Amino acid sequence: MRSGPQLVTVGSQAVTVPAPGTASDVWEVWRAPTSTPVRVRVSGFKHLLVPALAAACLADGPWRIGNVPDIADTRVLTELLGGAGATVTRDRRAGALLVSAGPMTHRRIPESLSGQVHGSVYLLPALLAATGRVASGRHGGCRIGSGGSGERPLAHVAAVMERFGARCEMTDSGFSATAPASGLRGALIELADFAVREPVTGTLTGPHYSGATKTALLLGAVAKGTTVLRDPYPKADVTELARALGTAGVPVRIGPDEIVVEGRGGPIGATELVLPSDLMEVVTMISLAVCLDTEARLLLDRPDTVRAALAPELDCLAAMGVPLTWDGDTLLAGRAERIAPVDVVAASHLVYSDALALLVPALLRASGPSTVTDLVWGSRFGYADGLRALGADLTVSGARMTVRPSVLRPAGGPLRAGDLRAVAALVIGALTAGGRHAVHGVRHLERGYEGLPDKLRLFGAGVRE
Asked: Does residue 8 sit within a domain?
């Protein structure tokens, strides 16, 4: 059951935002077997949308962002932008947002909103650059960080800000930063300072790496002088953000080992950006197709970008024996006759950490044991107990989990998980096992998937919200 949403004003427009704690956090899910091939359109890329909205705060002209997913992160972040003084217009028919920053008048990010999503972190550098000062309480999102209660890190954001000349203060309850009176200045940012060397290939990884790179990109675009990002985070949410800044009039050179930004010393320009399809939703739909023994035809936006950005995941799926065929803007995941065991490593230059949870249900069908290792967040296996309740044979040792072939069966009680991808893994596992299951923690899914219940129904799932 859902209680009434809140009507809020974003700039000059009223939009609907779910009130915190009012959406049902439990789904009942079951499966009605179907042999009909699935045809599903994948929503826009969340992890590029979030920093793009922050970049729009730095502009003196409108940013039009297309293929925007209708998820909780979008609704909360647009409300935050409106509260800071921007005008945000949503064209739901076109799936687009038009953001006009104008004079940003508010410098504090309210914790009632920032506590709901992790993406609010990227408004910290944006508002610092736009107003000269920013303050906030805590920031939310999946609690997969190193804090005592899984808090996500913020110290790396502060450290990057300080290299541009800002003064930052962090306490247990909040964060504040002030730019120098002379303005932010370009800097040499060694991103290796915010990462560790992973042992497989010797490349950089870790939980601070992506956020530090995005913070440096945003500040470098408006700082005075040249900013050099050495060894930047290499994945698509950074490279596509850098390209978007380039289309907004910021001279940006993207090389294999560094990104050079010629700061404008003031606001950037207007631009249009179409988000590629969400990378983790692509992996989710492929995992569903494998586990439910069906074909899935995925309709994609900017398929060339998706294909390049998901190269490690697609290589892994191919090694598992999942038939994947590209046809224009469509990716066809065929029925897998046999799943081969693989050893998968999540690191910043390898598979996304988010993807591991989505691959594990499929690996339970393999002909032998597999291992999954998370060198980004460490022991991020919040789905393990739920899958074990369904009959999965899983052994966790530090950052590595061994996945042995298992036949899933109905669990004797509810399934619970506390982060976005862990809940998605349990939903896939529950549908694979058969029977009816209560899955708790599904509010997390609203932050990463648009219309997931309807997409699950295309696969023959029953979902009672």
From this structure: no
CA atoms of 274 and 31, how far apart (whole Å)? 35
Measured distance CA(71)–CA(224) in Å, rounded: 35
- Which of 274, 307, 342 is a domain's end point? 274
The span from the CA of 185 to the CA of 464, in Å, is 53
Which residue blocks in 252-301 are alpha helix, DSSP H?
279-291
Q: Find where tokens 């003064």 sit.
A: 167
pLDDT interval class at 116 (50, 70, 90): confident
Residue 4 lies in a domain: no
Ranges assigned E (strand) in 18-156: 26-31, 38-41, 63-66, 87-91, 96-100, 108-109, 133-136
pLDDT digits 0-9 by tens, 377-411: 998 999 999 999 999 999 999 999 999 999 999 99
Q: Are 78 and 90 in contact (CB under 8 A)?
A: yes
Are residues 23 and 167 both part of a single domain?
Answer: no
pTM for the whole structure: 0.91
β-strand 175-178 against 167-170: which pairing, if any? antiparallel
Angle between helices 420-433 and 279-291 (to 10 degrees): 20
Cα 117 to the chain's mean position, in Å?
11
Determine the structural domain holding residue 112 and report its residue range. Answer: 46-274
pLDDT per residue over 80-114, tens digit each?
999 889 999 999 889 999 999 978 877 888 888 87
Overall average pLDDT of the 62-82 stretch: 94
Tell me: do 96 and 29 sit in the same domain: no
Are 166 and 178 contacting, i.e. CB atoms less than 8 angstroms apart?
yes
What mean pLDDT do residues 108-137 have? 88
Instruction: Name the residue with tokens 């805590």.
Output: 138
Q: How far apart are CA 292 and CA 104, in angstroms?
A: 49
310/202 same-domain check: no
Average pLDDT of the chain, as a whole number: 91
The CA distance from 123 to 127, in Å, is 6
The yes-or-no verdict on residue 201 having pLDDT over 60 is yes
Strand duo 96-100 + 87-91: pairing: antiparallel
* 3 state DSSP class of 396: strand
In a domain, 1, yes or no: no
Tokens 């004797």 locate to: 412
Q: Residue 278 and residue 276: Cα distance in Å, rounded?
A: 6
242 and 346 part of one domain: no
How many residues in total does the chain contain? 465
Domain count, the chain: 2
Task: Name the token pair of 111.
Answer: 């914790």
CA–CA gap between residue 452 and residue 42 (Å, rounded): 10
